[in-house]
Design brief:
Length: 246
Amino acid sequence: MDLELKPASNQKQNQPKTYNPHPNMNTIHSSRCQNRRRFLRGLSFGAALFTVPGLFADELVRTHPQTEGPFYPDKLPLDTDNDLLVINDTTTPALGEMTWLSGRVLDARGEPIRNALVEIWQCDHNGAYLHSGTSNRDKRDAHFQGFGRFLTGSSGEYLFRTIKPVPYPGRCPHIHFAIKMKGRKELVTQCYIEGHPGNEKDGIYRSIKDEKARKSITIPFVAMKNSRIGELAARFDIVMGLTPAA
Ligand SMILES: [Fe+2]
């Protein structure tokens, strides 16, 4: 079963994958599907808040840029789709706290941006990146995709299934983001866990002095109601400092 909300262009570049990592555990699978439907309904509701063009134009804070860091994959995985927990059609999922990470890519006026390529990369639950220079390489979770892409449709929505980020030496938990449009990298940033005690000890995070700028890249990871398997949801809207026509 493929993740929903995936535009046709994503389906083309990525092979469909088996969604249920525990084929013999139908109860869990059924529960997972129900939770996912609930989650997607939540997405629609959230999206409705932004459907009046320009309504919040004056209030939108542009997403603060952050350093790309050294761990953008030096060799992209064969599977680059938006489900980072399952690689191709394998049945063993990655370890970690399952998180549905979603949001919209918006322009400075609050209009959704379509055809924005959202890329994320993050370390696995052991703190290892999909990169030859990563620490903890011997402990790398071979089942974690480590990188994913999503091409937005007309709603500007994106969706990933991944893990809640974990700290690694020198860094608080974060997920790296790059937004590309027409092949050009328009924004590189990182998002952080709201309320995580490591944030204030992290030099890159601490270097952001402006409170609004910090808030623009700090998001809550919340338990999904009625999830029997402890899924989390995190929403990160990305406001670009440009308009599609610019
Ligand atoms: Fe990092």
